[in-house]
């Protein structure tokens, strides 16, 4: 999707913290070529808005209730392939970077330095260029290029999208029956996925699953 001729790029901003949205909006709306035209407090609402609104760029927080920014990004990449996507995160984590690229995003911006990097990142995304925040380039890109040079793959996803959905809901405290109702699957299927998660990740119980979910940005502490 191209930027409207002569007008600012239209941005959808999704973050579950009102104060963060307000701060990010102030940064973006101060630029003549950028305008926030819609806000969402979770990934599902962001996807709904992106279906109906004429937007050029979605700025998504990684860790949101209901549907994470990465889950929303994957869905947006499927339903709106021309839409540019940028991720926001509190955490500097190599795996997030690769997950963001794999989900269809142009990269991600650390919230702690959004006032410095966000505008540049938005403009890069609108030019369809990856944004690498300062300091990440040496570790992330060198690692990526080394893998590419030696024929190695980008790090594999540790778990499937369905397992990720279930992990998030388990970590949020939902029972197997509640998860089954939300995802329209049987509680037995939920239990099977949960057992697979524990085995795959080498974890023992819900508490360790919750800690893992926090570490990978599915939920916030």
From TrEMBL:
InterPro entries: CheY-like_superfamily, NreC/VraR/RcsB-like_REC, Sig_transdc_resp-reg_C-effctor, Sig_transdc_resp-reg_receiver, Tscrpt_reg_LuxR_C, WalR-like. One of its GO terms (molecular function) is DNA binding. Gene3D superfamilies: 3.40.50.2300. The lineage of its organism: Bacteria, Bacillati, Actinomycetota, Actinomycetes, Kitasatosporales. CDD domains: LuxR_C_like (cd06170), REC_NarL-like (cd17535). SMART domains: HTH_LUXR, REC. The modification 4-aspartylphosphate is found at residue 61. This is DNA-binding response regulator, LuxR family. Residues 10-126 form the Response regulatory domain. The keyword Phosphoprotein applies. Residues 152-217 form the HTH luxR-type domain. Keywords: DNA-binding, Phosphoprotein, Transcription, Transcription regulation. It comes from Streptomyces venezuelae (strain ATCC 10712 / CBS 650.69 / DSM 40230 / JCM 4526 / NBRC 13096 / PD 04745). Signal peptide: none annotated. GO terms for biological process: phosphorelay signal transduction system; regulation of DNA-templated transcription. PANTHER family: TRANSCRIPTIONAL REGULATORY PROTEIN NARL-RELATED (PTHR43214:SF24), TWO-COMPONENT RESPONSE REGULATOR (PTHR43214).
